[in-house]
Amino acid sequence: MQTIEFEDRFLEALKNSTRVAALTGAGVSAESGVPTFRGEDGLWKKHNPMELATFEAFNSNPKLVWEWYDFRRNIIRKIKPNPGHFALAEMAKLYENFTLITQNVDRLHMAAGSPEIHELHGNIHRNRCLDCGKMDYTEGFDEIPPKCACGGRLRPDVVWFGEMLPAETLEKSMLAAHNSELFFTIGTSGAIYPAAGLPGVAKKNGALVVEVNLEPSEISHVCDIKYHGKSGEILPQIVNKIKELRQS
Ligand code: BV8
Ligand code: ZN
């Protein structure tokens, strides 16, 4: 277990910030057993992201795309939040204004009790009908690709490459980054936009930006402080430090 050091400016921000935000990516779920997108066991390794997570792929090969999502749903259904998720749920209680923004579609932040979560890329468990727009959480279809009761085609309600992010969620996330005094970027390679642009928005508006990631990322250069290690080991230490500072 890696014990982390705290720079004075980080201690000051942890103690005195009122507006804090955190952006998470697949890495925060890695210790729960969810394969990341670009790691050695990455999901994309077996499948090219542009090949499957796009509407074109769904249109041309709905069976393959649905099999990929069903495969991932089956993994995600069996796993639990890890100490990193619980630490972020705890952090939300420690700040007057805390915003959790995630690129993940696995709902583990919700399972860990985070009160308010901005899901930039949707939710893998939700289905949406392309015809009537109806959404539901049916899983384990007897036919793939599944059909809606109206006869329309069902799709996973996630944001594919080339698709717009949910406007209101993105707007609120941009605003939270813009207004934050302390911004965490956790478990993300910083490869996917516009999510990866959020730490830069925070930084430009004066926030202290802290990275918690297993390895350097494409946005490490934007971060003031970098912890390279496991989020499930590092985040609980940060939350314990906040409590210590708040009690003193
Ligand atoms: C869009 C949902 C408008 C589906 C996903 C500039 C602006 C806007 C858009 C673009 C732009 N430039 C390019 C684009 C287009 C594109 C894009 O970003 N392309 C990339 C390749 C450059 N963006 C889009 O298409 C977005 N749409 O902007 O619409 C538009 C439209 C057309 C043209 C322009 C604009 C939509 C993007 C959303 C795609 N959907 N997922 C699904 O899940 O199936 S993306 C997918 O990647 C997941 O959401 C995932 O979360 C996300 C990001 O990956 P990460 O979370 O970072 O995961 P990764 O594996 O990469 O990294 C994990 C990290 O964790 C690693 O660094 C690892 O070291 C670390 N780690 C591992 N273990 C641990 C750990 N860290 C800590 N602890 C550990 N234990
Ligand atoms: Zn329908």
Write the layout of secondary structure elements.
Blueprint: H1 8-16, E1 19-24, H2 43-46, H3 49-52, H4 55-60, H5 62-77, H6 83-94, E2 97-102, H7 108-111, E3 117-119, E4 122-129, E5 135-136, E6 154-158, H8 167-179, E7 182-186, H9 198-204, E8 208-213, E9 225-228, H10 231-247
Parallel strand pairs: 1-2, 1-7, 2-3, 7-8, 8-9
Antiparallel strand pairs: 4-5, 4-6
The structure holds ligand BV8 and zinc ion.
Residues 129, 131-132, 134, 148, 150, 152 line the site of zinc ion (ZN).
Written account of the structure:
- With 248 residues, this protein is an alpha/beta fold.
- The protein has a domain at 1-34 and 81-121 and 165-248: TPP-binding domain (Rossmann fold).
- Helix content is 37%, strand content 18%.
- It has a 6-stranded parallel beta sheet with strand order 3-2-1-7-8-9, sandwiched between helices. A 3-stranded antiparallel beta sheet has the order 5-4-6, covered by helices on one side.
- Helix 7 links the parallel strand 2 and strand 3.
- The longest helix has 17 residues, at 231-247.
- The radius of gyration is 19 Å and the shape is elongated.
- The model has no long low-confidence stretch (mean pLDDT 94).
- The site of zinc ion has 7 residues, from loops.
